[in-house]
Each structure stands twice: as structure tokens, then as C-alpha cells.
Amino acid sequence: MKMKIRLYRTARLLLAGALLPVAMASAATQKPNIILILADDLGFGDTGCYGATKISTPNVDRLGRQGLRFTDAHATSATCTPSRYSLLTGEYPWRKKGTGVLPGNAPLIIDTNHVTLASILQQAGYHTGVVGKWHLGLGGAGGADWNGEIKPGPNELGFDYSFIMAATGDRVPCVYIENHRVVGLDPKDPIQVSYGKPIGDEPTGKQHPELLKMGLSAGHDGTIIDGISRIGFMTGGRTARWKDEDKADTFTQKAVSFIKQNTNAPFFLYFATHDPHVPRVPHPRFVGKSGTGVRGDVIVEFDWCVGEILSTLDKLNLASNTIVILSSDNGPVLDDGYADGAVRDLNGHQAAGPLRGGKYTIFEGGTRVPFIVRWPGRVTPGVSDALVCLMDFPASFAALTGQKIPTGDAPDSVNVLAALLGDSKTGREKLVEHNGAQLLGFRDGQWKLIESKIVANPEAGSAKSPQLFNLADDLGETKNLNATQPDTSRKLSDELDAVKKAGGRVGQK
After folding, report:
1. Which tens digits make up the pLDDT trace of 323-380?
2. 3-state class of 460 per DSSP?
């Protein structure tokens, strides 16, 4: 009898040992690594797989071939801070004051008591990291202490690791911040930042344009850092200041290092590149490579960054169990304050593709962005016209990882996981679009309404009466049907009002 028991136990142990790799493989499949590559100001038509013929983007195009390419994916807003706020919080930015484009010394605008995309995945057992552009504020109500511990910030919102720049490349402070501290800061040369009056004795672009290596077209006439005039004023921190030509390399190296240090999985990497945002200063090895001027060159540089991430996954045998998502925070802009020849050197390139408008506008070119999902063996390559939004990441990844979002958090995020994985041809039904200021548009299927404004701003897309477009027939938004389709216009206007009043999750079936 004892012999039988021993044999039985031995058999159980052998069976358990045989099943262990299967169980581990199953667990890995259930919790894939997630990499979100978010470009800055990359337009719908800026890459080859989205129709560009003048700029070569082989690595993005590889993702497009190997993944599911979406044609109706959106950021919530046509500019950076509000778009990124929604991506992490799952909330429309126009619901909360203070989510407009922030100065570089703004306090953190996300409530640390609420869940974020990062904290959801952290709770699910992911090691989480953010590398690149932040632009959601740092520090408490008084702003950040640049010479001490900089918190709250990403690490208080669910990120285990952070290597960021505070705002944008054209705003001070021009330094990197790694886990609460400015990198390479000499305490004998403390940093001071101002967005009011000039500080220190360093030259500004306004007073000394002859010192600039890049001319100005509008604004950007504050302190000169690395030969480029910025928005705002800064003094000190000379040993910590970045070199613009090296920024893409620095961020990419940090992103690759994060991946290499987390091969035991699962990990979540939010890789927010600077390119192709201004100031456009490509590394010398990319200068002149696009044939479309400096903006095209930094898109080629961005494509290289993507290639480094994909190559790292291949070398570490992580590609098959890693979801890679590539998108942009908003649509494209050409002249954005610097005289860099972006308009002059286009050479026929159409940054927004067939869409009207771009960054800062309420037209489709403002919020409709490139969006690719690759998960080898799980997501079938192809094209999807499902309506999805970057704001849907919190709800969708909570569903993927079995997490529950507390009531009141991520109120506007919709679970579109089935669409992201290619299991459904439909995503959300409705979406509010936002130009980043006070102008809203509303999508319901093929129909789009742009609300009226008493003071019209044609450049942003507003008029004194509503504008109604049928995107199925008029993707370029050239034919206003408001006068001929009054019932549809009224219906969409009522639906938009309902979303404004509702707490969220409008747009989900």
C-alpha cells in the first residue's frame, strides 16, 4: 500500500513538472508585455503604410504589415497635454479645468488618488516604465523643486520607472528627469525656471536672434538653450542640459534598457518620443535623409527609434509575447514657431493624408492618428475601420489583464479590446473630438458634427453655425450638410449635450 502511495505521489510530481511549462506559457500568453510607442505630432499621412510616398518609414511600415492597422483611430484632442491626459486617465480633458497645453513648470494635473493606465497594469503585476515626453505637470501646487526631489509625478501615478522631459522640447527646463531627480545636475549651479519675466543673465531669442542656429517664425523667444530659443526662461543647470541632436538616441537607449532589464515579463513601456515635434533637430546621421526637409528627417529619425525597439524584441525573443502599439498624440503641424523650412521643403508630402486640418483644429486631421497593433500569433494582420480612441486604453487593458476599475475612475474609457485584437469590426459608437481648446466635434458612426461658436475661428474649424459632415462620402470634410440634414444635425447636437452632462462611458454598446 505504501509503495502504491509513493508511486502515486511520484506520478503526480512528474505530471506537475510536465505541466509547469504549459502553465507558465499560458500565464505569459494571458499577460503579454505591452509597449506603447507614442509619437509627437505625427500625422495620419506621415508614414508609408498610411500612404506617404515621399518619406521612407520601413520600420513603421513593418509594423503595419505585421499588425492591425486602424483607419479611424483618434486621440481625444488635437494637441498634446489634453491628449496625453486622456490616454492615461480615461477621461475627456474638457471635463477638467487645467488640462490645456501646460508650461514646463506646471504642477501635476492628474489626481494621484485616481487610477491610471499605468497603475491598472501595475496592479496586474506589470513592471511599468515611461520614457520620453511627459507634459502633464510635475510637483505639487507650488510646482517642482528642480534642485531636489521632484514629486509627485509619473512614479506616483503607477510608473515604477521614469526617464522624462518635463514638457516639450521647445519649453524650459531643458533637462532630463529620472525617478524624481534631474539627471547630471550640479548642486552648485541650481536651476531656476520662469514663465513670467526673464531670470538670470542668459541671452534670449528676442534680444539676441543673431545667436540662434534656428530662426523663429512666432514666439519661442525666451532663453536660448543649445543655440535654440525656447518658450519660457531658465538659468542654471548647465551640466544637466540636453543636446537636441542626441535626444532621440538618449530616449531610445533608455527605452531599450528598460526592455532588457525586464525580460522576465510582464512589462509595460510607455515610450513617448519627441519627434517630430519642434524644435526639429535630427541627429547628423539623419540630416537630409528624407528629401522633404527637416520635418521629414525627424520622421525618419522616429522610424529609426521604432526599429530599435522592434530589433530589441527580436534579439531577446520577446516579439511573440509583446503587444506593440504605435500611434500619435495628435495630428500634424508644419510651421509651429520655428523657421525650419517645414512648409517650403514638403516636396509634395501630405502630412495629414486625405484629411482636412491638423494640430489645433477640430477637423479629422487634428485627432485622427496612425494606429497600429501588433501581437504575433494573436492579432491577425490587416486593416480595421473600427472607431477607437487612445482614451480607451485604461478600460481595454483592464479587461485584458482582469482588473476592475473603481467607480468614478476612467469615466470615458470604453472597453474596445475586441476591436484592438481584431476580434470585432466595431469599436466605440460615439466619440467627442476636441481641438485642445474650447471647440468640440461629435462622431456618431459616419456622421460628424462640429458645434457652433459665437466667435468663429475658421483656422481651428469653428463657425457661427453648426457644421455637419458625412465622412463616408466626404472624408475631407468639404461639404457642410447642416442645412440639408437638419434632423441629423439636431440629433447629434442633442447627443453631444448628453455626453457633456453624463459621467461617461457614452460610446459603448
Report:
1. 999 999 999 999 999 999 999 999 999 999 999 999 999 999 999 999 999 999 999 9
2. coil
What are the chain's domains? 31-191+236-425 (3.40.720.10), 200-231 (no CATH), 432-501 (3.30.1120.10)
Q: pLDDT class for 3, splitting at 50, 70, 90?
A: very low
Cα–Cα distance for residue pair 251/118, rounded to 1 Å:
19
C-alpha cell at 280: 526639429
What's at 88, amino acid-wise? Answer: L
For residue 364, the SS3 value is helix
C-alpha dihedral sign at 44, 46, 49, 50: positive
3-state secondary structure of 347: coil
Bridge partners (DSSP) of residue 260 are none
Q: How far apart are CA 221 and CA 224, in angstroms?
A: 8
369 — phi, psi (to 5°)? -130, 160
Q: pLDDT, tens digit, for every residue of 122-163?
A: 999 999 999 999 999 999 998 999 999 999 999 999 999 999
Residues with Cβ within 8 Å of 288's Cβ and at least 6 positions away in sequence, in order, are 297
Q: What pTM value is reported for the model?
A: 0.93
Maximal C-alpha separation, the chain: 96
Task: Tell me if 175 sits within 8 A of 242, measured CB to CB.
Answer: yes
* Peptide bond just before 279 cis, omega within 30 deg: yes
